[in-house]
């Protein structure tokens, strides 16, 4: 396997840090060419010291200037520092790197990930919002440019491993349906009446995974699983009717594929993001991830159940948006980002997140979203409506 140069978008987040951990275990195979983050110049400085990339990018100019100063003081002024969205897009498309890890959370990852696709990169995709917002556009651009899209989400990576081997793209011949597993998050056993009192700290205390705050809240509402269902439709070319969600508290079975002959294949591993990251980075080879081996005797039992729609209304909203198609997934994602941000700022009760999303879906303007400009306008308009709904559903 030849040396791969890797650009990591969202380097200081959970996906980025786990990716760099795997890269650091294989210096003969991978090198970090560019590292990008939103505003965490302190975290990015430490990563620059450790991995010595050629370029570091921050969205905020003030943070970039602080990073430049710290790098100069540390004698690392050979690392180029850039700032702004244009610099992020440029780094994602730069010819010096052949692999781009799309680990930016939310709509902010759309433009750089699209740029990587246009440049024909090998894209390790963890930003599900790219496909939720612009699935048709992104997949078309990737196909036209010859980009290879490899799923990093543990569920989609598990599905990919359970599908028949394909030389190009994916092969779903003989597949009856896909089952996405979900832990149910930290609130899955709470009495429904208590959900109104959930604090951000409680919603973010995931029992199995260490993740960022936004995705942790999405896990608690199971909106994350709904977004993953939409993502799976685009990655594997299946309609939402052939994708189901299954509660699995242990997070050991990462997803399953059911075939027409009655057989079912599952991928099992520790709940450690380095497992799917190592699989995608090394593909088609298997490389060391750093994760602990799975001891099935210690696990002892694996439990499964259907999700309760009363407890997880966001999942139902996402499934409905997937079936509606068009602008609905864009509006769903925008409204959810607004509502979750308000919850994390204690401006919205946890049990009102779904209400804001549902009201926005009912009121936001629709329309075709095949072009990038239309996607961005739909996203902008939906956020305006969602902010209006916050005034109705939020805390005074």
Descriptive overview:
By secondary structure, the chain is an alpha/beta fold. It folds into two domains: 4-151, NAD(P)-binding Rossmann-like Domain (Rossmann fold), CATH 3.40.50; 161-270 and 293-393, Orthogonal Bundle (Rna Polymerase Sigma Factor, Chain: A). The chain is built from 16 helices and eleven strands. It has a seven-stranded parallel sheet, with helices on both faces. A four-stranded mixed sheet has the order 9-8-10-11, covered by helices on one side. Helix 3 (61-73) links the parallel strand 3 and strand 4 (80-83). The chain starts with a strand and ends with a helix. 48% of the residues are buried. The mean pLDDT is 94.
Give helix and strand order, one letter per element, not per position. Answer: EHEHEHEHEHEHEHEHHHEEEHHHHHH
CATH class of the largest domain: Mainly Alpha
Structural category: alpha/beta
Residue-averaged pLDDT = 94
Computed CA radius of gyration, to the nearest angstrom = 20 Å
CATH superfamily label of the largest domain: RNA polymerase sigma factor, region 2, helix turn helix motif
Task: Give the strand order of the largest sheet, numbering strands 1, 2, ... along the chain.
Answer: 4-3-2-1-5-6-7
Helix content: 40-55%
Which geometry do the CA atoms define?
globular
- Low-pLDDT segments: none
Kindly identify the CATH topology of the largest domain: Rna Polymerase Sigma Factor, Chain: A
- Count, helices: 16
Q: Provide the CATH architecture of the largest domain.
A: Orthogonal Bundle
Strand composition percent: 5-15%
């Amino acid at each position: 396997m030849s040396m791969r140069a890797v650009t990591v978008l969202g380097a200081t987040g959970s996906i980025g840090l786990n990716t760099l951990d795997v890269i650091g275990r294989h210096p003969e195979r991978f090198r970090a060419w560019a590292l990008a983050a939103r505003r965490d110049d302190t975290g990015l400085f430490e990563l620059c010291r450790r991995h010595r990339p050629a370029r570091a990018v921050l969205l905020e100019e003030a943070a970039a200037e602080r990073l430049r100063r710290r790098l100069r003081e540390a004698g690392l002024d050979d690392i180029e520092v850039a700032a702004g969205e244009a610099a992020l897009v440029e780094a994602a498309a730069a010819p010096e790197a052949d692999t781009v890890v799309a680990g930016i959370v939310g709509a902010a990852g759309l433009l750089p990930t699209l740029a990587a696709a246009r440049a024909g990169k090998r894209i390790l995709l963890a930003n599900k919002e790219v496909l939720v917002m612009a699935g048709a556009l992104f997949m078309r651009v990737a196909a036209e440019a010859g980009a290879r899209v490899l799923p990093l989400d543990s569920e989609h990576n598990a599905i990919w491993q359970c599908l028949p081997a394909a030389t190009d793209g994916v092969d779903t011949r003989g597949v009856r349906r896909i089952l996405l597993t979900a832990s149910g998050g930290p609130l899955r056993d709470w009495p429904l009446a208590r959900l109104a009192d959930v604090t951000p700290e409680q919603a973010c205390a995931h029992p199995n995974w260490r993740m960022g705050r936004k995705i942790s809240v999405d896990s608690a509402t199971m909106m994350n699983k709904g977004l993953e269902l939409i993502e799976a439709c685009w990655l594997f070319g299946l309609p939402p009717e052939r994708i189901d969600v299954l509660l699995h508290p242990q997070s050991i079975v990462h997803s399953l594929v059911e075939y027409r002959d009655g057989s079912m294949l599952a991928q099992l591993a520790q709940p450690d993001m380095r497992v799917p990251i190592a699989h995608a980075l090394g593909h088609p080879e298997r490389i060391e991830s750093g994760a602990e081996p799975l001891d099935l005797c210690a696990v002892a039992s694996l439990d499964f159940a259907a999700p309760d729609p009363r407890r997880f209304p966001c999942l139902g909203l996402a499934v409905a948006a997937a079936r509606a198609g068009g602008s609905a997934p864009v509006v769903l994602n925008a409204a959810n980002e607004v509502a979750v941000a308000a919850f994390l700022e204690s401006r919205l009760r946890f049990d009102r997140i779904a209400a804001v999303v549902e009201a926005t879906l009912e009121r936001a303007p629709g329309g075709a979203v095949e072009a990038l400009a239309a996607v961005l306008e739909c996203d902008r308009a939906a956020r305006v409506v969602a902010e209006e709904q916050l005034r109705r559903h939020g805390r005074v």
